[in-house]
Amino acid sequence: MGKRQSLRATMITNFDSTEQSQEWNDLVKQYPAYPSIRNLWCRTDTYRPCERLLNDYTDIATHFAGIVRTAYMYCPKIMLTEAQLLDGLFFLALGPTAVNGVLGKSYKDGPAIIVSGRHPTLEDCLVAFTTKSIEDVKEDAQKAAEQENETILPEDLVCAGTEEQLTVRPLEYCVFGTTVTWNQALGLNSRFYTEFTNRLKHAHETGELKSTIIAEMYAQLLYGAEADGDASDWYGAAIEDRCRFLGQRWQEWIDAEKQGLVLYENQNDASVKELTKSKGFVPYFEANARDCAEVLRKQFHLRDLAGAANTGSSGGNDTTVTFAQTLQAIAKMPKRTDARMCIDRAVELPEGKPALRETETDEETVDESVDGSTGKWFGKSVGKVGKVEKPEMSRQLLRDWYQFVYQKTMAQHLGAYLVAVSAPNNSFARLAGDRSSRSSLVLNGSITKQLGKMPFVLFATFCYQSQPVIEAWRKCNADTSKRIQKINTRNVAYAVEQACQQKSLKGDGIDMLWSALVAGVLALLSALSDNVWFNGKSPIWLVVMVAWFIGIVPNLIDIAKWLLGVRSSFKTVVYLE
Questions:
Q1: Are 122 and 208 spatial neighbours (Cβ–Cβ below 8 Å)?
Q2: What is the pLDDT of residue 525?
């Protein structure tokens, strides 16, 4: 990709809807009585599980805050696709008010969230994302059947509704934690299709909210077969209340866009095309696939297997050849469903383990000065450092590779930089970041935790007081020298650490004791050097060097403690091209 004239926005790999779902599940499974995804969106006068979960376990919001604030420091505009918002667990659970609050937004700040869609309004995006005509669903099902999808049978295409009526869109929904199948979308009764179509068609006339209509129809589809008011699972909630909170959150985001609290961009609008100057999704995908495939070829020494990948001849063991063949195949598939199907068919490859996310590990970092009692020098241990495993040739690595290529392509297509927050060492995001040191900025992962723990007032104050440091970091691009990149990145990390320091009497007392101890040791060394080690015949430069070294030892200790205090096996990577 060519160099951009200016940084417009960032897209965050963690905010892909599947990534949000995985990180959400990793977080909530630690809690003893968390509601399942199917219960999360229920809301009655007495039962509000999502809001209760967020207030009982604030680590969920803290985790989200760390991610979005880390990216916000590099660019004050966060780009989301319509799917990342409308099917994103964190954004829907928290809502626009909480998300803007996390970023410390006030009257003087413009919107930080940009939603990019392919329809005139955000409400139109919701309708297109969740609904489809019966005719279109049948056509899609027939195409899938032609691609050897044996799960689709001819009888599945029989439907009680007419071709022009609407039904729910068959899709894997992270927000529901389930997949709506072709059979489900086409297997409902005629009353459902008629009611659904008429309510949406006349919503503006009747005053109904489209978000509410869609939420109620999905509740009827997914949970309608269950007993109405089943106290054992739904706490007496009627069917229409079982997705009520989801409909409310969808509407809050739609209203936030209308109020100007969130920006919406129609990708098909001429002014947006002029702004992004995109060459098209496919050209970017082909270039990224080519570059990222080279990363894996170097990692696993696949260069000599190019012929084997093309001809099927044996240039290595079966696993290596299959890996090379599958990699070459998916590098030509800009459609995600095709690539996923291709990877799943590579049964000769081991499944492999996904890269360990920060939400899954008990990694130990020295969280310096988060607790005032730890003092300025000595932080506290907050867990165990997760064992970093090397990536292996597997289907999971290919999924990771393709996900990165797809997300980077989408970011470039929409005129944004891609940011991977808290990427583990063995993830492809880290491998890609290490490929060219000048094409990426790497920030220590523990900074994300510190930013997440900041109260929103402190974060807003930090952003204001550290403007020179943050602006210098934002100006770093692929043309900036590596030395300047490192200096500005370390300046940002240091500014965050300083902003997070807390004071206490105990902490100051420990500081003074250690200072007195170090001063005593240095005084002893100084006396020994004057009266024992040097007898007046030592060269003057040596005496000066020893005195200088003794004088700066306290500063060296501070530097060493800070470097140790921000260590982490997770890194945030900003991809600059």
A1: no
A2: 62
- Is 500 in contact with 376 (CB distance < 8 Å)? no
Pairing status of strand 417-424 against strand 171-173 = unpaired
The answer to the question of residue 204 being in a domain is: yes
Q: What letter does residue 346 receive in the DSSP assignment?
A: -
Give SS3 for 376.
Answer: coil
pLDDT tens string 297-348? 888 888 654 554 554 444 457 888 999 999 999 999 999 988 998 999 998 9
Number of folded domains in the chain? Answer: 1
- Return the amino acid letter for 245: F
List pLDDT tens digits, range 420-452: 988 877 788 888 876 666 678 887 768 888 999
Least trusted range by pLDDT, from 367-381, 436-450, 481-495? 367-381
Angle, CA of 282, 67 and 17, to the nearest 5°: 45
Where does residue 313 rank: exposed (0-12), middle (13-18), buried (19+ CB within 10 A)? exposed
- Which domain covers residue 204, as residue numbers? 125-263
Structural domain includes residue 97: no
Torsion angle in degrees (nearest 10) through CA of 397, 399, 401, 405: 180
Q: What pTM did the predictor assign?
A: 0.83
For 417-509, where are the E strands, in sequence order? 417-424, 440-444
List own/partner pairs for 123-126 with CB under 8 A and 24 or more apart.
123/210, 123/211, 123/254, 125/82, 125/86, 126/82, 126/86, 126/210, 126/211, 126/214, 126/250, 126/254
Compute the distance between CA of residue 102 and CA of residue 66 in angstroms, rounded to an integer.
Answer: 9
**pLDDT recorded at residue 151:** 62
Cα(268)–Cα(279) distance, integer angstroms: 13
Domain for residue 58, yes or no? Answer: no
- Residue 350 CB burial class (10 angstroms; 0-12, 13-18, ≥19): middle
Residue 144 falls inside a structural domain: yes
